[in-house]
Amino acid sequence: KMEEPENIVDVVMYHLSKNDDLAGKKILVTAGPTREAIDPVRFITNRSTGRMGYEMAKEAARRGAEVVLVSGRVNIKPPYGVKLVSAESAQDMYEEVMALSKDCDIIIKSAAVADYTPKNKSDSKIKKQPGDMSIELDRTHDILLELGQTKKSKQILIGFAAETNDLIANAKSKIERKNLDFIVANDVKKEGAGFGTDTNIVTLIDKEGNADHLPIMKKSEVARAVFDRIVKIL
Length: 234
Ligand code: CTP
Known about the structure:
This protein is an alpha/beta fold. It has helices at residues 5-17, 51-62, 90-101, 143-149, 167-178, 219-233; strands at residues 26-31, 36-39, 42-44, 66-71, 82-86, 106-109, 116-118, 137-139, 156-163, 182-187, 199-200, 202-206, 211-213, 217-218. The protein has an eight-stranded mixed beta sheet with strand order 5-4-1-6-9-10-12-13, with helices on both faces. Strands 2-3 form a two-stranded antiparallel ribbon. Strands 7-8 form a two-stranded antiparallel ribbon.
């Protein structure tokens, strides 16, 4: 049976555009939203589609790296040449990432991880009762923070920051607090940036506080700009 034409195009494009900028490097990328179960039929999630993270993984593979993509539930096909590991909740993502991170040279945390999860996950569907209800939430692991704490000297750690205000100041404080090499910050309130679009408007901010404001770009072009920066650091 003939392979799907779009898969053939992916493989051809991969081989035609491949280079060896990152040959021999192991790269871990996280992408997509997490789902925090309330009961078997309900969960808390966010608007992430995973597109930015999947473009990051695709670009890393195109540059010759060995890539593992830890992803929440999304509706995107994994890029050719990338190993996919599925993770549903913040806890699943934490466990997969901490286990895989030890022997990775570069870690890119583009996933939109839930900061809170329901304290009690009901095994059966919760029935409605008269009156209001509230759900108590526990903090999840801050995966990026823990990666920063266990970071090895030559590892490169890159965070994403989705902000709605004080973009630069918040991003700078995250770089310090989480021991990052740089951060890809975007103002999710700007048109053409953030969740659910093909484009993004990002600012790359490094440890020294240098801010590189990029114009509106396709997410694939943002991925290219981020990896150009990584190659420079290497
Ligand atoms: N992140 C993470 N683990 C979490 C929450 C977030 O690893 N439990 C990572 C994301 O993958 C992203 C970065 O932290 O790379 C920034 O996430 P963001 O939600 O913008 O910021 P927070 O660190 O959660 O800070 P705040 O809520 O103060 O904005």
